[in-house]
Input
Amino acid sequence: MNKIRKGDEVIVLTGRDKGKRGVVLSRKDESYLIVEGVNVVKKHVRPNPMKGEMGGIVDKTMPIHQSNVAIYNPATGKADRVAIKVDLSAGKGARRVRVFRSSGEAIKVA
Output
């Protein structure tokens, strides 16, 4: 189970964008995330008249490693770690739930 998922609000811990917050747009693979407004680079693209694309310099969001971000806890206003607990209260059996390590409350998926 991935501790950081699509739709989670994260805060960057290291690198050029340290301190920025953003929403996870997608997972590139098992260890890389694409975060809105983080790790944006200038990309030179060639025009492609067959596809109707204009050439020039465009901004592109590049992936960032998941070890460089932490989930944002709105209750404390700081970065937090994620724990996984087994919830037995559901009638269908055991269910794994992501919780904040500092407070133990469940993470709400937006």
